[in-house]
Each structure stands twice: as structure tokens, then as C-alpha cells.
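Quick one: C-alpha cells for this chain, please?
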Amino acid sequence: MKTLVTIAVLLFNYTIASTQTNLLLQNVNIRAKELKHGLNSSGDSLLLSAERTIFKVEIFNKNFSKTINVSNSSVRIPLNDLPLGRFVVEAGLKDKLIIITLLRQSEDSALELTHLSEPVSMKSLKSDIIEKEQHRKQNSIAFSTNLPRATELIKQPKIPKSYWIEYIISNGNSSYKTLRFANKSLVDKMVAKNRIEIKSVKGKLNDLTVWEIYDTTKFLRFKRRNPDFSNVSDSDFFNVTPYYASQTYLMEM
């Protein structure tokens, strides 16, 4: 079994740095050599450093996205706000993007190393990267909705299945952008917290926007094609009027 794992790791050009809750698959490709990457001693933060400037770091998968503007040669990124799952970490230097894989698991679950011998790791990673590139290259596509049936005289109120959150934390020198789905309980907690922090000097630049989502699959598909999705006037699968927006709340105060 040990031999099998070793061969699998060599085939994929990755080595493993592990902690109790996070696993970082380090990219040992020659093009990634200049970026030193690893986890801190407690395993709750990602450490990146290079001789050149790191401009931006993105951590994402199909359901979550976080962008950190760095503009420095090193950065420490806390991982506690990431949900469980597998993530692509994309570090942007001046002339290249360096890709790393991060696995986040619960403390009481152990990741079996034999899983690394399965092709799903690399295939899934390539799939996420391809989707990311397609999202960047495509221009905004005209939004169309299904016409209502003639027999639909009264529209029943829609019940949201989930909520989409875009949360920007800014301290003046750097900013963190988190995008994710959340349930009503978490949304209410974040809204309550934001209403307090935007009244303070430290948190006045933080910006939280929440949308009600009726169909998560269709919403994600549309969002990938249309980065400016918030500008549409109507939709069958999400409420175009935000459930909560920091700027709207400030104007109503």
C-alpha cells in the first residue's frame, strides 16, 4: 500500500502536507518552484511567499469563492471560514498563475491516502480550472426567462431554497472577498454582525450583500456566464432584489 501511494504521488507531481483538519497538495512543478506554500504549525492558515510580488490569491470550488488582494511578496490566509470540501488555490504573480489543491475536512474524519491514487483528484482539479477560465473568457450573455403560462393568473410567493452571500472585508490596506451559499440561520447572524460593524471605524468599509436563491443549480450556471448577474431586472431562480445589502441599510438608517 505504501508503494502504491508513493507511485500515485509521483505521477501527479504532488507532495502532501497534512494537518488535523486541512491537507495541502503542494505543486512541485518547476513553474511553481518560486512560490513557497504550506500551512502554519497549527494548520489553520495558508502561508505563501515568493521573491516577486503576489498580486492576488483566489480560493474556490463550485460552491464557494474567496478572493484576497495581496500586492506583497508574502501573505498569511486564515482558512477557518472555508466550508468542508476540496478547493483550488490560485496564486497570481505578474506573468503566471500557480495552482495548488487544498482539502478541508472535519476534525473527526480522517482522509485516506489511498484516495490520492484515484484519478478523480486531478480530473476534478482540471475541471474546476477549466470552468474558471471559461468564466473569465465569456462576455456577459443576454438574460432570458421563460414566459409565464396563460393560465397562471396568480403568482405564488417563492420560498428560497438557499441564500447567496457576497461579503467583502476591507481594512484599508487589503480586502477579502467571500462568496458562498448559506442557510437562513447563518445569513441572519451575518446580517446582525454587519449592521454593527459598518457603524464602527474598523468595519465601516465592510460590505455584505445577500440574495434569495430559488434554484441553486440554475443560479450558479447563470452566474458563471454573467459576472454582473446583480444587474438583471428579473429572474425565475433568484430574487433580483437583495435580501440584505449594507449600502441599502445605511441609507435607510
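The chain has two domains: 2-131, 162-252.
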